[in-house]
């Protein structure tokens, strides 16, 4: 199946021609790029099926030309997904999330050179309020994808992301790195035990940005490294009901253990997304961020 964007619009009056602009970066109306397509003046619908990648941002502008004068529409933004992401945090300039997740920087974690930086010795992290948006309900497909650079390692784990309650028991998940690979664990807070505790062995390189995409398709989890399937898949044999958690990036911090920084991340995160579908569809490759 070919990915495509379907557009329709209205226009008052008649024009000589129209221009369609589409970019993965914001479009400057004062300095327009080369149009992706030039359309006849009577056109009001258009299907773009060229270079449309699932799960990528697309900025769209339409313009109309009459008597050599070009008038430009406001800019639209789409994510090339059938349904909206749960979380889309780019961490390029600030902690803002595209879909309302509120991040708080703890102990001096900050954005620098378009990445979110963490210093382990300072127990730096960012975290959210408690929410159900960070879980993958029942048997729904999901993608958790991010870019990470691990700058140093000791003998313990380096936590990339985890959900956590500050009170009571809850169903949680965690992604962390050890020298031998990437670990993924889901556990239940109702004493029924661990649902998944799995490691994908990988030779990722320290001090090098790596793109990870952990995806569940039909209850089967797969890990992609820089767009390529890594190792074998793992089947999730048990559902659980999500509860309101907070999401913490860069630390395994919780209210019961506030001083242990041995598992905190020394490194960088430059993107984090939770998407309500398996981007790679269970195949051998997946769409890059």
Architecture overview:
The protein contains no helices and 22 strands. It is mostly beta strands and 289 residues long. The protein folds into two domains: 5-78, Immunoglobulin-like, CATH 2.60.40.10; 87-275, Jelly Rolls. Strands 8, 10, 11, 13, 18, 19, 20 and 22 form an eight-stranded antiparallel beta sheet that branches. The protein has a seven-stranded antiparallel beta sheet with strand order 9-12-21-14-15-16-17, with no helix packed on it. Strands 2, 3, 5, 6 and 7 form a five-stranded antiparallel beta sheet that branches. Strand 16 (181-187) and strand 17 (194-201) form a beta hairpin. The two termini are 20 Å apart.
Topology:
Blueprint: E1 5-8, E2 17-23, E3 37-40, E4 45-48, E5 58-66, E6 69-72, E7 76-78, E8 87-89, E9 104-106, E10 110-112, E11 115-118, E12 125-127, E13 142-150, E14 158-164, E15 172-178, E16 181-187, E17 194-201, E18 210-217, E19 220-225, E20 228-235, E21 246-249, E22 267-275
Antiparallel strand pairs: 1-4, 2-3, 2-5, 5-6, 5-7, 8-22, 9-12, 10-11, 11-22, 12-21, 13-18, 13-22, 14-15, 14-21, 15-16, 16-17, 18-19, 19-20
Largest sheet: 8 strands, antiparallel
- Unreliable stretches covering 5 or more consecutive residues: none
CATH architecture of the largest domain: Sandwich
Count of structural domains: 2
Element order: H for helix, E for strand: EEEEEEEEEEEEEEEEEEEEEE
| CATH class assignment of the largest domain | Mainly Beta
Topology-level CATH name of the largest domain: Jelly Rolls
Task: Tell me the total number of β-strands.
Answer: 22
- Indicate the percent of residues in helices: under 10%
Q: How much is the radius of gyration in Å?
A: 22 Å
Shape, per Cα inertia axes: elongated
- Overall pLDDT confidence: 88
Total helical segments: 0
**How many angstroms does the end-to-end distance come to?**
20 Å
Helix-and-strand structural type:
mainly beta
Strand residues, percent:
35-45%
